[in-house]
Specification:
By secondary structure, this protein is α/β, with parallel strands linked by helices. The chain has a single domain, classed as Flavodoxin domain (Rossmann fold), CATH 3.40.50.360. About 40% of the residues lie in helices and about 20% in strands. The radius of gyration is 16 Å and the shape is globular.
């Protein structure tokens, strides 16, 4: 059975604000009757791209002895993918960027994410959202994915988001936006 919604946390910090916010959105979508799954990229062993360029002719990554294919499989069988990421120096942290870089093998299949919807959830102390979103948006759109919602959450210390009503409100609005997008797609 395919998961309707996959929530990915790209944070290396277990149970930090990114994990918490992605889980909150999944909980709201679950209340809307959707099957959901949470996945932390940092819980998987994903090697860095080696720059071997074998993917340029093979159409897939040449590295086979890690968990990349397993995580990619979860993305591929989901209708909506929520990419949650803290902002690290104006971009996603290395654990998420390693996963993104490994999809370079899709170069031959620019429609790999065609028909798939994505939501972008960014968490930062105060800045860097624009550059991070540009990286994630470029990756998603390069392979034909559709971005159906974005949210920027302000939080720094672990669990801080839970004490910020304005940020929780943003998450509720984001969840509602994603749910509407899924419901429109079913008509």
């Amino acid at each position: 059975m395919a998961t309707a919604v996959l929530g990915i946390s790209g944070s290396p910090r277990k149970d930090g604000n990114t994990d918490v916010t992605v889980k909150m959105v999944l909980e709201e979508l679950g209340k809307g009757g959707l099957a959901t799954e949470f996945l932390r990229i940092a819980d998987y062993r994903i090697k860095r791209c080696e720059g071997c360029r074998k993917c340029m002719s093979a159409g897939e990554c040449a590295i086979k002895d890690d968990d990349f294919a397993r995580v990619l499989g979860r993305v591929e069988c989901s209708h909506l993918v929520i990419i949650g990421s803290p902002v690290y120096w104006n971009g996603p942290p290395g654990v998420l960027k390693d996963f993104i870089d490994r999809t370079h093998g899709f170069y031959l299949d620019r429609g790999h994410f065609a028909g798939k919807k994505f939501g972008i959830l960014s968490v930062a102390a105060d800045s860097g959202f624009e550059n991070q979103e540009a990286i994630l948006e470029s990756w998603i759109r390069s392979y034909g994915g559709e971005i159906v919602g974005k949210v920027r959450v302000l939080a720094r210390e672990k669990g801080e988001v839970l004490s910020r009503p304005s940020e929780l409100g943003k998450l509720n609005d984001f969840s509602a936006c994603l749910l509407r997008s899924i419901q429109r797609g079913k008509r």
